[in-house]
Amino acid sequence: MIYALRRLIQAVPVIVLIMIGTFLLLKLAPGDTVDALVGDMGGADAEFIARLRAEYGLDQPVWVQLWRYMLKLATFDFGWSFVYEQPVATILLDRLGTTLLLMATSLSFAFTIGIALGAIAARRVNSATDNLISTLGLVFYATPSFFLSLMMMLLFSVKLGWLPVGGIKTIAGFYTGWDHVLDVARHLVMPTAALSLIYLSFYLRLMRASVIEVADLDYVRTARAKGAGEWRLMIHHIMRNALLPVITLLGLQFSTVLGGSVVVETIFTLPGLGQLAYQSVVQRDMNTLMGIIFLCSIIVVVVNFLTDLLYARLDSRIELA
Amino acid sequence: MKLKLRSLGLALASTAAVTMASQVMAEEVKRGGTAVVHMISEQRILNPALRASTGVYNISGKIVEPLIDKSYDGYEPVLATDWSSSDDGLAITVKLREGVNWHDGEPFTCDDVAFTAIEMWKKLLNYSSALQASLESVDCTDPHTAVFNYSKPMPLDLFVAAMPDLGHPMPKHLYEGTDILKNEYNTAPVGTGPFKFVEYERGQYVLAVKNEDYWREGYPYLDRIVWRFIKDKSAAAAALEAGEVHESGFIGVSMADVERLSDDDRFDVGTDGYENNVAHSTVEFNHRNPILADVKVRQAMYHGLDIDYAIETIMRGFAKPGRGPVPSAGGANYTDDVPTYEYDPELAKTMLDEAGYPVTDSGYRFKLRHRPAPWGEYTQLWAEYYAQAMREIGIDVEILTNDAPGFLNGVYRDHDFDTANGWHQFRSDPAVSTMVWLRSGQPAGTPWSNQFGWQSDEMDQMIDDAASELDPEKRAEMYHEIQAKAMEELPVIFAIEHPFISVTSKKLKNHHNTPRWNSSSWYDLWLDD
Question: Which of A151, A185, A78 is nearest to B235 (CA)?
Fold first, then answer.
């Protein structure tokens, strides 16, 4: 409990620093949201532009803008998005669900299948099965997700017509109940596959290496000498210890998936945080972008905390202090 | 005595309505269905009286109607039924359609027009605030007659030409007494159009449904329209092919896909319906650079550009060579009697030698820093072609890649460029569009304006005179002169005139049947599914 509290207090300055750093970094980019807006509109006169800038508070010096923003953030007020003409908090909550759903399905798919394949390959090192799995891993690893997305789209949507091209649900389909769940699931098949395959190959390769390493250690030999069956050996002695580096990677990658989903979300037009972040940069939508970064830093801090807890659970030698 | 322009237009419009009706009969209209339209970019707001932008009209045009629209037969009455001007051009009287209701059931009256004109068109709407700068007041002599009073003469044909884009009344009862820019109806518009706004899911879609109470009886045919936001052009092409999307306008798919789908008999691919939305691909000069300030150099550079080649390879043939600031779609204001610059690289080299810029030891005459606008694929390709063509005549061009805000600031505010390229849309009348490229005196930071350091008192005078000339014939002549002068002096090269391109499923019927179709109301669009 005290441990959790300490971690929480430590997280505050980290997040504040991230926010200030990002704010200043974004201000270094040429142009602001009014420029982007005017670019979208195909032009405007000088008065229109000056009025909008005053309206958005962009005519103030940067440090005044930063101070105002941090004050508002302290009360968890994310401000107003001038691109979406909605409060940032509303937009973020709208988008968070889709992203978390996509992340959860992709990572759990990648993780379970990845460690299973990795363990199988490791147990049969240099056999035909190992070669097949390793090659597959290499192919997944080398295929860029945008290419994979488009190829899947071409095959399953355009040629075969099995799966929808994009979106999160059938618009004007007005499905409810289980039909709705099924509809969303159908829309998530390709994005999940596109996003998870590369991570699957990470876990696969790491798990394979880790299992091979652990399988040679003394305590495994001891367990085998004591008469533990192969299955028990694998689950209790090898897997549990081999998982540690994989968990580390999982924790690290949780944040990467947020970024990696930009491409997949854009191609499949999933209304998630990745797509929103990308749009916000292009549109110089400071408030939304800062909101996303705040949310992401919180997610990363929480995930790191959970990873540490999981470590202690898997390896009782690790103490939380 | 009042100038009457409308009677011919009315006759034409009614004939058109009859012909259209008979065509429709012949094809046996199917009612109902949902048309799905591809949009590349998210819209910030959907209020066309606050944002003059085709992206906004593409959606709001079905929900909010303008006073006057444009058809292939001329200007078509929508919420206005008749318009006329006083002799001195200081008062324009507009008769309004009776028996029209807003989507919330309130009647549409002159109060709405007067409120919107003063509070939005004059104060807040881009392009319009310049056009309506001399608008003093709008009087409602009765609930269906609006009189626009100007302090300077306003040519009636300019007023009418501006209305399809810049003449959308909004409901006064929902805006009065509120902060107009933050009004919730800006993203959930209430209009008088054939479709009613239902919802806008950010990043996904906008949904509108049939207005059962629409004033054109028996219309619309469709039950629903869905606009889907698909940022990725390849994914949009896949959606078209999979039949999930029926139309993608404004070159919403890659040029390679435009070419590929034009051979696919499931789609109509072409530039019909964009006559009012033509744009110029440009080469813009920074005249602060002494080399580029020399008109001979600019003319030589024009001779170095193979425009026909660029049209074939980049625009896939869907374009024509530019002839100055007024495009061929500009009607009477256009002329092709202007100086032109044939592709002749040898001549270009000779001219550059003569201008005093021989090839130096570096292998080039001089070096230019070029900023390409990030407005889509073909703009980038045009920049690359330009750089290549210039190298052939001995000018080294370095391309500085930037995103939209970077480009706009680099060129139009900081003037940190030698040459730039982008495109600029023509909006029915030169006075409300392309003249800003030539008129000097606009403060730094005004995008799409003369920020090139080019200044000509003669040109400024010609532009101002033409904007307030009441006689349409004289006005057209003035624009011919401006066009010729712009082609001679080349402050900007209006290199390629191109409409936009649509890919449309053949299941859609009556599509692209007006010169600004993507912005129009689609009341007669139907789906053969």
Answer: A151
Please tell me the predicted confidence (pLDDT) of residue B446.
73
Contacts of B408 in chain A (CB under 8 A): 31, 35, 38-39
- B279-498: what fold? Dipeptide-binding Protein; domain 3 (3.10.105)
Distance between CA atoms of B221 and A74, rounded to whole angstroms?
Answer: 52
Q: How far apart are CA B437 and CA B422, in angstroms?
A: 12
Between chains, do B425 and A39 touch, taking CB under 8 Å as contact? no
Give which of A95, A159, A171, A286 to mutate to test B binding, by max B Cβ within 10 Å: A171
| Residue A41: per-residue pLDDT | 66
Does B235 contact A268 at a Cβ distance shorter than 8 Å? yes
CATH of B68-175, picked from 2.30.30.100, 3.20.20.120, 3.30.110.10, 3.90.76.10, is 3.90.76.10
* A302 pLDDT above the threshold of 90: no
Question: Token digits for A282?
Answer: 């292009």
CATH 3.90.76.10 domain residues, chain B: 68-175
pTM over 0.95: no
Q: Phi/psi of residue B368, each to 5°?
A: -125, 140
Shortest CB distance from B204 goes to which of A47, A158, A269? A269
Q: What is the pLDDT of residue B143?
A: 95
Which residues does chain A have within 8 Å of residue B34's beta carbon, measured at their own beta carbons?
A: 172
B31 and B194 Cβ atoms separated by less than 8 Å: no
| Check: complex ipTM more than 0.85 | no
Interface test with A, best of B56, B202, B254, B527 (most A CBs within 10 A): B202
Residue B86, chain A, CB below 8 Å: the answer is no
Q: Which of A29, A95, A164 sits opposite B244 (nearest CB)?
A: A164
CB contact under 8 A, B53 and A95: no
Residues in CB range of A20: below 8 A, 6 or more apart: A66, A70
Q: A84 in contact with B at a CB cutoff of 8 Å?
A: yes
Q: How far does CA B426 lie from the centroid of its chain? A: 5
**pLDDT tens-digit series, residues A86-139:** 888 988 888 888 888 888 888 899 999 998 999 889 888 888 989 999 999 999
d(CA B430, CA A20): 47
Q: Which residue spans of chain B are classified as CATH 3.10.105.10?
A: 279-498
* Residues of chain B predicted below pLDDT 50: 1-22, 24
B20-29: per-residue pLDDT in tens? 444 545 568 9
Cα distance from A56 to chain B (closest Cα, Å)?
A: 11
Of chain B, the percentage scoring pLDDT greater than 70 comes to 95
